[in-house]
Amino acid sequence: MKPTHRNAFVKVCVFFTLFLACSSGFAQTRSGLYAIYSDTRELIGQLKVNSSQTDTVTKISVVSQFSVQLVMRVNVKYVLSSVYHNNQLYSNSVITYRNNTVNSVAKTVRAGSQYQYKKDDDEWVYPKAITFAESLLYFNEPLDKESVYSEFDGVDKPIQKVKTGHYQVTNPVNGNISEYFYETGILDRALVHVSFLPLTIERIH
Question: pTM higher than 0.90, yes or no?
């Protein structure tokens, strides 16, 4: 190999070595913005979701804000934060605000091979690994999933496939059924229940 060719070859090898070394630490990020509608199709708020993933860690944040008219106007906000390590949930917190005041706090934290779930004054042990939770539903169509862990309620919710891209998730606590619709593996629309309120969320981008 001629010196000039050898130098060029070395430069190319160094470039790709540096590229791989640097890119392996980069985070893959995804985000989504959803509109929130009431059961009468009134636009009442927005939901933002962000996900970042490195080699072994995935972080997901969801911020939802909407306003509903009950006896009086109520502003609701919830902030969810989940951390996954090696494809298992490591920790989660869900803080719900009502008129800018903390209304409820739920936490799921891994402790060895099980989890400690606590919501306000209620607390119990969840006895098995959590690899699929509701915060993953935005960017991961549940193609082969039979259930999903609820970070809000600390329980498994059964999943039933209705047809391609359409799934039903049942809350065993209250019997409510939520509908999820996917396009190209990304959540496009969902009909969900927040407390006793039926809401629709639709992807904007």
Answer: no
